[in-house]
Amino acid sequence: MSGKSRPSGLGSLFESHAERDRRTRFHLSRPFDIAPERGAEYTVQQLADLVAEASAWLYEAGARPGSRVAIAKDNHWDYLLLAAAAARVGALPVLVAGSLPPDTLQTVLKRADARVLVTTGEIVRSAAAAGVDVTAFAPRVVTIDGPADGATHVDEFRGARVPGTVRAASYEPMVATHTSGTTGVPKLVVHSADTIMGHLSRTESLPWPIVGMKHRDTVATAIAYNHMRMITWSAGTLRLEPKHALILTDGEPATAERMFRRHRPNYLEALPATYVGWEPLTEKPHHVFTDVRVYVSTFDAMHPPTVRTFLRASQRRFPTWLQGWGQSETGPMTFRLLARRDLEAQGDRHPTIRDVGRPIPGFTGMKVVDPQTLRPVPDGTPGVVLSRTHGRCVGYLGEEDRWQLKAEGKWWNTGDWAVRSRTGAFRLLDREVDVIPGMSCIELEDVLADRLPRLTEAAVIGVPGELPLPVVCTRDGSWDQAAWQRATADLPRMADPRLLEWDEFPRTSTGKVRRMELRERLLGEASAYGTGRWT
Fold first, then answer.
1. Whether 172 contacts 183, CB under 8 Å
2. Is pLDDT at 5 greater than 70 in this prediction?
3. Which pairing describes strands 411-420 and 426-431: parallel, antiparallel, or unpaired?
4. Are 463 and 528 in contact (CB under 8 A)?
5. Which of 75, 260, 270, 396 has its CA 20 to 30 A from that of 222?
6. Whole-model pTM?
7. How far is CA 241 from the centre of its chain?
């Protein structure tokens, strides 16, 4: 364990902070799915009470110490409340995005092997229409939005006696969340209280200079709440006690405008795709981003124009963009702060935004190795990144062999392709499976986005024997071939671009482009330059 004291588990998260009389007010963009009648504002004590009530009906539905509770529903912060409720009775919560395609959902639920599945009637029916019976994957299926064949509505279990809190060992599995799934079926990543509460959440809970939450802050988040990031953000927010916390369940500009006009955020985190969707809001008079001190971006690469747009939108003197690089399995590995001056140069062949910083002092060790020998390569030489952290996950549900393949003693093979500078900074190039020799796809995508203002998405994909294919999306669906030729004159040779609509890009629950699926769809094969061994 890396923490200074035994970390408390997820089951007592809200209860322990309620006992400390935390004063943060939580504002939801819509009421919780598990308590639609209770409105959209909560104190920490009210959240703790709702967790206790949910633990009662989960226990009544069959959740027991050592069992698993799978949760697959619409995106909302009550994923965390249900996870805490399951952990409170000693069960292992397994958080699954309800937006997964039915065949993928089927695979993930099989691996979860849960005693209780909490879901919605809508998911049950839509999966059934695609030939998948999700009610077959748990002895008890509980729907929270209404009845469904083969399931029991949650009202049948409400009002049960609240059971006592089960205290599990800090090294035992505490929660499982799945990865983004950009390269296939998402992996179910298992963390313990030691790894996620004792180590990873500490990066959120320390009062870092500049980027730490402050008591007077209004913080806001619009992410995927089934993801591990949701746990660390929540633990840090409860610990640092900002004045207001805004929870947005979707990336719609109208939702952001409504929430932020009431409480202007000072500290804002969102999915990269959500930031892109919010850009038109910055063009409005008296827009809602004027008071943002810190923007936070994780999950995926951000393109320079979007970062530049939001930094310029703030009326703070020195707004910053906190760029994080990490994985569900390791938590954050590096952070880098970007200021307006870092984005002054526009259209550079090698944009600075791909420089992702140094390992977090006291938290993470990193090295770049040869993919064949796994021996360190000289600084300046591309290779696969290995990470060493006390926050490394403890396993994959249903795929232990896959976990063992990526664990190299105390090191973890991230499957990311990067280069380390002589000063110890890292420049992210690609995922190893997406590598095209002699180039960095994500760097090219940054350059294209910076030189072609109408682009809203760009993904460079390739297979051996063919020119790399740029797949692009523009704001209005139009295309300017002359502008493309000017923008790419000094870039590696590529095939003619393929223009798609935004919704035609296959995406994960966190908004990432599923490059493997895109490659198979457009190029007709799954072969790639990379091995994909560590995906």
1. no
2. no
3. antiparallel
4. yes
5. 396
6. 0.92
7. 22
